[in-house]
């Protein structure tokens, strides 16, 4: 098939991500602007501020990656943007800019499901997994195990019944006074604790470990940490011990259930995606446990774990390729409805 050049735009939350993906040459260039510093003084993302900042950033970022790739706007074959889920106002910035560019250039515009972007992001790395595989999607908004049999062929195996893993990291980090976004900070504190000559050690429950299904529950862990905080004086050592105990509990359950998903489906490839996929302990534990059963784990590059434009450009390119393969190019607006 002839090469397709796709511009990807991600504006679902507080990162403005853009990328150029070419189906023959791969990822040509990408750029990301994180607003997290702007939101940190409010302790979370302020939707109105997020939308306004996306408007300020997105066009300069697109200009930047076009010039970095030596590509002209007129060379684009399609535009892919994050359709949802996410903050409504923030999403509309990406949708509007994409619609306007697509109209001006007379090229197709595709809305991509944010989770499909995350799900396919490990395919941007080499070696890339081949279908079928099990995917563990762990972001700030979602925690799901999926069986992935091909593009668009996703079966939900299990998911969280309350908080997402990233959300639990963020809320627990807030309790521990680590600010926003707390996941990476909590993880850093836990990792430092392991390497310190600590005197404290806490054990937290492993929620739903033996529930017999592939579902998760993380909201109780935050409460368990709060209970610990009421019982113990908050020294740097106890704070580190709590961060470590929390991370250990989350990672343990995520790893055990991922392995159970492999066993249930009979598959031997596990793909990890979403922001929590950047967690070092999760990566180490999954690799170790997978090796024991002869399975392989695939991770996105660190920079493509959290929200980014590359995963949206890539998902858009795959969707475009699928439709052009089937000679259904005019159908691009409806393929996501499947
Ligand atoms: O995928 P993502 O960028 O955005 C969503 O779609 O939600 O994920 C962000 C989430 C946040 O909750 C953040 O705290 C968490 O991923 N996260 C981490 C780490 N890096 C990011 N959680 C634990 N350890 C990390 N190293
Ligand atoms: Zn995300």
Automatic annotation (TrEMBL):
Organism: Nitrosovibrio tenuis
Leading EC class: transferase
Domain of life, source organism: Bacteria
Pfam families listed in its UniProt record: TsaD (PF00814)
Similarity comment text for this entry: Belongs to the KAE1 / TsaD family.
UniProt GO cellular component terms: cytoplasm
E.C. no: 2.3.1.234
Positions of Fe cation binding: 114, 118, 307
Gene that encodes it: tsaD
Protein name: tRNA N6-adenosine threonylcarbamoyltransferase
